[in-house]
Fold this protein.
Amino acid sequence: MKSTKYPLSWKKKEFLIKIFCSIPNIATGILIKAGKANFVVDPGDGILRDLNKELSPEEILKISNLFITHGHHDHVGGVWSLLTYMRVMNKKSPLNIHFPKGCVEIETIHGAFQKVYSGSLSYTITLNEIDGNRKLRSKNVNIKPFPVIHREYLQDGVTTRQVPALGYNFSFDNMKICYGGDTAYCDELVRHAKNADLAIIEAGHEDDDEHNDMHMTLAEAKSIGETAREYFLVHVPE
Ligand SMILES: [Zn+2]
């Protein structure tokens, strides 16, 4: 398997996840519905187009929480469009944006957005910078962030540095979805994916044979996925 066909969907009772897209360097976009709650995870480029196909404008305005795993463009490229759409459509309910501490991309996008629109904004935005793995609860959903290992290249194309990066477990109605975001093989993900009803695991490493500290090989990703009841492999290079 080298290419995943999107969207990927999973639904049990009132708990639904739809992965519109998860292509390395292009875009990610994920919708979670849990009872009456609408959450968006990693709103990459095209998220508004995909949400617009899936939800009514009223339902898009009901989105209460954005969860960001890390600041790479393929995971946050749609944030500006989404925030602006909500303003244009006169969203009234508050929006929470959860992101890893030190994610300068979200801080900067939000800062620029406030600079342009703070005088004409119909809804409030609360930033929740996540440091550690304290549990959150919103709309009957328990959310457990956990740190993962993900790196990026510096200008020289050789040296890498760790970026602030999280995975999230979403629990609702005695079911659990684990989304690891972009990550190398790591114990935190192993622990959080185990026995999940659905695990969404990246297999983003180009080379199938060799472990690295940016992404997982197919074999690594599968070995984690198989500890959950069901799993999707995402972020596979195309
Ligand atoms: Zn990344």
Notes: The mean pLDDT is 95.
